[in-house]
Design brief:
By secondary structure, this protein is an alpha+beta fold. It folds into two domains: 3-121; 124-251, Alpha-Beta Plaits (2-Layer Sandwich), CATH 3.30.70. It has seven helices and nine strands. A hairpin with a 6-residue loop joins β2 (18-23) and β3. The two termini are 14 Å apart.
């Protein structure tokens, strides 16, 4: 599950699930919409017939798959925000069919509805931009190999180790690239906001991580009337850097909602 919103005034409540013209977690599958008791839920189908799910209803994933799906989840949520205000679901939330969704929503419906209604008045937003060091190091190695052609020192043949053995020069190049990326994202979003404050921005004194590593944390004040423009700027910043693939995580007054059992 990705998110929940109010059913738009222009739409009637749909008795049956339907698909949006919006890619889900898997490119060949579109986002599915389920309307329940005045709320609209946005979900992606997952391929496996028997996913591993925790007792609280969260998908259990191997680390690399979790890293990939977390990025895809945030990408989908950011794209869906172009359709209006919504509250993200806790990453990895899984439901098996409409009936289970109804059961899990039923006893927390009032609280969930209140959170969604409050979204229309939110003006202060927090954004965290994160990257995967391993992906950037591989990209830099590929770029270096391409520029040298079939040089005997071609980086593509040996690859680049990520972690404590990463040489100082490569680390400096990595951090400099991440610094420029963070600045580019900040400038794009600042233009679409009324005010902003930077809480953290990666510098040359940073280190390595094998998880999603924050390179920017910033707060943005955006009037409700300007939110569509701000959400558009996030999607554009997300799509502007296909090589780095930064993960942009946006939150308002509430981080996300949980349907944990």
């Amino acid at each position: 599950m990705h998110a929940v919103s109010l059913i738009p005034f222009a739409d009637a409540l749909s008795a049956e699930p339907f698909l949006l013209d919006e890619s889900g977690l898997e490119d060949e599958h579109h986002v599915m919409v389920v309307d329940l008791t005045g709320l609209r839920f946005y979900l992606s189908l997952i391929r496996t017939d028997a996913p591993s799910v925790s007792k609280s209803g969260l998908l259990l994933l191997a680390k690399q798959e979790a890293l990939r799906l977390r990025y895809d989840h945030e990408r989908v949520v950011n794209n869906l925000r172009m359709r209006g205000s919504l509250l993200p679901a806790e990453f990895g939330t899984v439901v098996r069919g409409r009936d289970e969704l109804l059961r899990r929503v039923e006893f927390r419906h009032s609280a969930l509805l209140e959170l969604v209604v409050q979204l229309s008045a939110v003006e202060r937003w927090q954004l965290t931009a994160s990257v995967l060091d391993a992906k950037l190091v591989r990209r830099m190695s590929e770029e270096g190999g391409a520029s040298r052609g079939s040089s005997r020192e071609g980086g593509r043949s040996r690859g680049t180790r990520v972690g404590k053995r990463l040489d100082v020069q490569t680390l400096e190049r990595l951090l400099n690239r991440e610094k420029k990326l963070a600045q580019s994202i900040l400038e794009s979003l600042a233009e679409a906001s009324d005010r902003h404050t930077v809480e953290f921005q990666i510098g040359l004194g940073g280190g390595m991580s094998d998880d999603w590593k924050p390179i920017l944390r910033a707060g943005f004040t955006v009037s409700p009337a300007h939110l569509p423009r701000f959400h558009q700027a996030i999607v554009e910043a997300q799509n502007l850097h296909p090589l780095e693939e930064p993960m942009l995580h946006l939150t308002g007054t509430t981080e996300s909602f949980s349907l944990s059992m």
